[in-house]
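Moderator note: this is an archived Q&A kept for reference. The question asked for a predicted structure of one protein chain; the sequence and the answer are reproduced below.
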Amino acid sequence: MPEDPRALQKATILVVDDEADIVDIVSEVLTGAGYEVLVARDGEAATEVFSQHSESIAAVILDLTMPRKTGLDVLKDIRRMRADTPVLLSSGFSQDDVTGQLEGLGVAAFMRKPYRFRELLARLAEVLEGTGPG
């Protein structure tokens, strides 16, 4: 557990989803909770934003299905750039449907859409504290 729990809420989170409403609402929820937020609306943009800000990004909330580059490809890019970055994967598919694709890629947590924002904040806090399911 971090010495100062408030330090988690100053963390920078990259939110990646091709659905504008999801990006907007999740960004608003995270900002309201005290996080700094970066956004990307497709896989190519996600890789670009992550490469530009990799040292300051504390965690990534990543959609699995997106245009231009899939979430799985973005996850592989993130692992090449900074392997220790916690990634919370979100998808409309169940975790059982995608587990085989994710083996060895170190997903910190999985959330099936639609999810509740209270659940998202709790799971994100676990991931940042290093207590998530891994």
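Archived answer notes: The first strand starts at residue 12 and ends at 16.
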